[in-house]
């Protein structure tokens, strides 16, 4: 009985080995060329990184160079005409103004002494140079004439000198004061007396500025002289114009 079971087991094992030797049908022919799979790869001339137009996350136009300005920005051309030179500035202080003043006007001098009295009319001129915005150096001359006295003799009085001048130089009104030390000359000649004398002028006035270069002036001064071994205290008025330069 045991022998029969062994024989039967050997027959079943041989049948299983024979069925295993049969070739299984291939799902794909054996002669299929594997290189054909890679032949579908795009050629090197194509850009592998160029996204599909239909699948692009951003439109292609968004990467284009922005257009230039339709019209360039207008830059004003420099003015060929030279700018006017600024007014001269003082070395001291911050006010812009001219340093020089030339004044001229009609002068009236009341000249009184122990020998004769006269109301003389003439011309007075002055030149002032300002070293800063309030202090100047002035020189002036006045020449006045009066009617005849004595024997066909006209009264002529010349007063001249120089000294400091202080001014409050505002935009329009410019009040000022000065002290002038100098000399005086008079005619007619009197017996035993000199025609020349020491003179002092102390006073002031005001200028009204019509424009930067032109002003009107009013002035009043006390004029002290020492003719005929005496002292004279005279009074002087002047009205005129001033040129700034």
List the helices and strands and how they pair.
Layout: H1 2-20, H2 35-38, E1 100-112, E2 117-130, E3 135-149, E4 153-167, E5 173-187, E6 196-211, E7 214-225, E8 232-244
Antiparallel strand pairs: 1-2, 1-8, 2-3, 3-4, 4-5, 5-6, 6-7, 7-8
Nutshell version of this structure?
The protein has helices at residues 2-20, 35-38; strands spanning 100-112, 117-130, 135-149, 153-167, 173-187, 196-211, 214-225, 232-244. It is mainly beta and 245 residues long. A hairpin with a 6-residue loop joins strand 7 (214-225) and strand 8.
Give me some keywords for this one.
245 residues, mainly beta, 8-stranded antiparallel barrel
Structure description:
The protein is mostly beta strands and 245 residues long. It has helices at residues 2-20, 35-38, and strands at 100-112, 117-130, 135-149, 153-167, 173-187, 196-211, 214-225, 232-244. It is rod-shaped and about 200 Å long. 18% of the residues are buried. The model has no long low-confidence stretch (mean pLDDT 78).
Largest sheet: number of strands, sense, barrel closure: 8 strands, antiparallel, barrel
* Share in β-strands: over 45%
What is the overall shape? rod-shaped
Give the structural class.
Answer: mainly beta
> How large, in whole angstroms, is the Cα Rg?
60 Å
